[in-house]
Design brief:
The protein has 330 residues and is α/β, with parallel strands linked by helices. The chain has helices at 16-27, 47-54, 92-97, 141-144, 171-175, 190-200, 216-223, 241-246, 273-282, 293-302, and strands at 62-64, 85-90, 110-114, 122-124, 134-135, 139-140, 145-146, 149-150, 163-169, 187-188, 209-212, 235-236, 251-254, 285-288, 306-310, 321-323, 327-329. It folds into two domains: 12-78 and 117-329, Putative cyclase (Glucose Oxidase, domain 1, 3-Layer(bba) Sandwich); 84-114, no CATH class. Helix content is 24%, strand content 18%. It has a nine-stranded mixed beta sheet with strand order 1-17-15-9-11-13-14-4-16. A two-stranded antiparallel ribbon has the order 2-3. A two-stranded antiparallel ribbon has the order 5-6. Strand 7 (145-146) and strand 8 (149-150) form a beta hairpin. Helix 1 (16-27) packs parallel to helix 9. The protein is globular.
Length: 330
């Protein structure tokens, strides 16, 4: 049987069910790392890969790839996703007034934060998305994620896994050199990912973490959040599933809310079909809402597009995602 087409133009826009099913079957990694696997493609990162990544550090420059975590964020309340609420429980005012109850004049400040785990820069864990009631590695979704959390593939398992060679593909600048921003609804193809890598003179391979810049966050910062969270955006086409599988990358992240192109590539009702293929079937960890703008400037100035990337999730037991502050080190 021929593999699914990698041209966005070939998608049957009337039949998302068949288009998703064909790619899920073609690229499924169930059992590849054993029946009890909890890491999926993060298994591609090994000690040799981390040593390679460490060798990319020459100047010691660090660039944070995280958006802020504050009330002025992109979330609009979809499915109870809100922006962080930060509250001080002890303040300098309390210390000045001596009402904290501490001896010999010591005072302090404390605070708490309440937020969805996927409200800003974050990873989607392997328990985040299911395909017809099945989770990563062929497990029943109800056996994996319950009201107690992800009992099998919780994000805590990746706490020491996500340190590797990072590769930035500035597809926005590659395809739109004038403004470096792709238009909403632009579906990035596998061929365009390869062309961008070739133009930048960088390779993509096993164990790499690929960062795809579309320019969507840059526009949101200039024009206001608008529909950044859940609205129209450039992103990866469903047809990149084969590229994501055969490249053997460990993870991928974008500067968009949803990683894949929005609206999705169908005239019939659909929702995040590429997520449905890559998370529960390929076992791919996905990052969203990363800030890649300063990184793109630095990479272009250096004429170098790879770096040590450290992006561990918080080890929140049973979580299906995690906020992060990823850093690129040159």
């Amino acid at each position: 049987m021929n593999p699914p087409s990698e041209s966005p133009a070939d998608i049957d826009r009337s039949d998302p069910e068949s288009e998703v099913a064909a790619r899920a079957a073609a690229y499924r990694n169930w059992g590849r790392w054993g029946h009890d696997d909890v890491l999926g493609t993060l298994n591609f990162i090994d000690a040799a890969k981390r040593r390679e990544a460490a060798g990319l550090v020459r100047q010691g420059e660090v660039i944070s790839l995280s958006q802020a975590f504050d009330t002025d964020g992109p979330q609009r309340g979809w499915r109870r996703r809100t922006n962080p609420v930060h509250t001080m429980t002890d303040t300098g005012v309390d210390a000045e007034r001596g009402n904290q109850g501490f001896p010999h004049g010591i005072g302090g400040a404390d605070d708490v934060i309440a937020m969805p785990l996927q409200c800003s820069t974050q990873w989607d864990g392997l328990g985040h998305i299911f395909d017809h009631g099945m989770a990563w590695n062929g497990r029943r979704a109800g056996d994996v994620v319950t009201s107690e959390g992800d009992l099998v593939t919780g994000i805590e398992h990746a706490a020491a896994a996500i340190v590797s060679r990072g590769v930035l593909l500035d597809v926005g600048a590659h395809l739109r050199p004038d403004d470096a921003e792709l238009p909403d609804g632009y579906a990035i193809s596998a061929a365009e990912l390869d062309d961008c890598a070739a133009a930048q003179g960088v390779s993509v391979g096993r164990g790499d973490i690929v960062l795809v810049r579309t320019g969507r966050l840059a526009r949101a910062r200039r024009e206001g959040w608008g529909e950044y969270a859940g609205g129209p955006s450039a992103g990866l086409s469903l047809t990149t599933a084969g590229w994501l599988h055969r490249s053997e990358i460990a993870a991928i992240a974008t500067d968009t809310w949803g990683f894949e192109v929005r609206p999705n590539e169908f005239d019939a009702p659909s929702f995040q079909p590429l997520h449905q293929v890559v998370i529960p079937n390929i076992g791919l960890t996905i990052g969203e809402m990363w800030d890649l703008d300063a990184l793109a400037v630095s990479c272009r100035a250096r004429r170098r597009w790879d770096f040590l990337l450290s992006a561990p999730p918080l080890p929140i037991t049973g979580a299906v995602g995690s906020p992060i502050n990823p850093v690129a080190v040159f």
